[in-house]
Amino acid sequence: MDLQGDCRVTASRFTDGPVVVGVDGSATARAAARWAARDAALHRSEIEMIASANLSADDPYVLEPLRARCERALAEARRVAEDSSDSTDPLKITTQVVDSPPVTALLEASDRARLLVVGNRGHMAGHRVALGTITTALAEHCRCPLTVVRDSTSNWSQASIAVGTDGSPGGRVAVDAAFAAADLRGVPVTVVHAWCDTDVADMSVPCTMSEWPSRRSRADAWLDAELDEVRRRYPQVTVRCAVTRDRPARALLDHAQAAQLLVVGARGRGGFAAMRLGSTSLSVLRSARGPVMVVPRDR
């Protein structure tokens, strides 16, 4: 089976549709709106902003103030998005308050979206919470690429795109998405491949320090061959390959520090078949300081 060809078909399903933004009035939601506006301007995409006024109670004295807060949050997110775009063409933005729970509403929207953008935590989460429960659920079940944004401003200019790959179908889809993003932005891409999937301090790891030079040479050759097809499709993208003996999550986080966006597959070759979000992707989402895009293998 041609896995790379299969991944190209999957990735192409994400090229149409709006950018959907989850809004709850938090600082991270406004940062998500800002990031989404810049991405939508590049793709000439429409933006849909969704806020949830879901409560178990039907008391209008409770629901109406909540709806009003959602409307204010959407208006603020819209203003942030409009102020963030450098495009001469005005952004087309629609907003809606929904009655369904936020996870349900945003997952339904992901069926038609090109991209879903949310903050890493909502307004109810404390500052020590690295990844909120809603964002975690979306990362596990989203049917389109999901970008998780922190409340700090990311370096959008000429910083590179970083992506991790392990040769799995999920890794190949992530690489394809990273190259497409780098091509559109006119920036380089850094492809990270971690040779060892476990802690290098573990004595059971077969890749010892004395063996590393020869293993590194083989890993470099493997990665070069792995990227051959995507390089041909994006000949104008400058590529830097980084083969490391470090743990995958730690290696990705290290290279993400100098990147404007880190791209990962929802799940690599580890774990079990029913797993929707791998441990490396979850670790990166929790610890990354900049935006992280999680690309599902299919939708």
TrEMBL record:
Domain UspA residues, every copy: 18-150, 161-296
Protein name: Putative Usp family protein
Family designation: Belongs to the universal stress protein A family.
Highest taxon of the lineage: Bacteria
SUPFAM superfamilies according to UniProt: Adenine nucleotide alpha hydrolases-like
GO function term, MF aspect, one: ATP binding
Signal peptide start-end: none
Keywords per UniProt: ATP-binding, Nucleotide-binding
Keyword field contains Transmembrane helix: no
Organism lineage string: Bacteria, Bacillati, Actinomycetota, Actinomycetes, Mycobacteriales
Pfam families xrefs: Usp
